[in-house]
């Protein structure tokens, strides 16, 4: 009975994506489909992806691509080769997509699900961008590492937490929290990124400090946040109010990377 109900729910979700353009319909359908794994539904999703590209329905193709990556992160990425710019595209060679990502990591990679496809080695590619890229590329990489669902991303995020750019540091903090919330809380608690977040409670930028405080609080380090609050001065009234809110448990959710994110 359970399997039959699940199959019916997935078919209804497929129909909603195919027939609707409502973001709410797509969100609800994506939540259902992203947690499935059946081969028959995969086949229908792949057909829908290519049909959407043929019709120029990029938003629909993007959503379906992300769902495919969620359903099977080890999926062969060659289904997306049609997205590659010429002359990079070579039919039947999924590694070409990986080579393209190495050089560019295009904006919107997370929306298409490329951040989840393990065969593209996204953590490795984003590590290269953080090491060698300009500020915009480093910012994109720091933000997308949190969407890789790969604990190895903590190693790459550690130096990003000390990046010269405030925006990159902030994005890296957000990514650490996203990974911890995605099921890697144990790996986070034993990693050096946790100590680095504690150090960020004393850094100059208020937004980075508050973001670090929120992550530390959510994963059991209330005492560190309380200590940081005790060090605030009369001239840091806004920071004081924000840290007080954190200690009350007033921690807003992270922005969604895509509409089907739970």
Automatic annotation (TrEMBL):
InterPro entries: ARM-like, ARM-type_fold. Residues 1-12 have a biased composition (Polar residues). It comes from the Bacteria. Residues 1-25 are annotated as: Disordered. This is HEAT repeat-containing protein. It comes from Lentzea indica.
């Amino acid at each position: 009975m359970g399997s039959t109900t699940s199959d019916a729910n997935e078919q209804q979700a497929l129909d909603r994506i195919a027939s609707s353009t409502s973001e709410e319909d797509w969100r609800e359908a994506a939540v259902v489909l992203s947690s499935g794994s059946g081969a028959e539904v995969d086949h229908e999703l792949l057909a829908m992806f290519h049909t959407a590209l043929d019709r120029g329905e990029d938003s629909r193709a993007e959503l379906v691509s992300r769902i495919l990556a969620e359903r099977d992160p080890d999926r062969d990425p060659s289904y997306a080769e049609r997205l590659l710019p010429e002359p990079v595209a070579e039919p039947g060679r999924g590694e070409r997509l990986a080579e393209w990502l190495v050089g560019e990591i295009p904006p919107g990679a997370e929306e298409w699900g490329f951040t989840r496809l393990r065969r593209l080695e996204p953590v490795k590619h984003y590590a290269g961008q953080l090491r060698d890229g300009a500020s915009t590329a480093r910012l994109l990489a720091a933000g997308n590492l949190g969407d890789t669902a790969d604990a190895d991303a903590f190693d790459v995020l550690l130096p990003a937490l000390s990046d010269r750019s405030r925006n990159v540091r902030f994005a890296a903090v957000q990514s650490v929290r996203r990974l911890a919330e995605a099921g890697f809380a144990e790996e986070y608690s034993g990693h050096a990124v946790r100590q680095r977040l504690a150090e960020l409670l004393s850094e100059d930028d208020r937004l980075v400090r508050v973001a670090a405080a929120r992550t530390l609080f959510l994963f059991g380090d209330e005492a560190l946040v309380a200590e940081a609050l005790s060090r605030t001065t009369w001239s840091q009234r806004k920071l004081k109010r924000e840290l007080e809110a954190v200690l009350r448990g007033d921690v807003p959710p992270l922005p969604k990377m895509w509409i089907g994110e739970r």
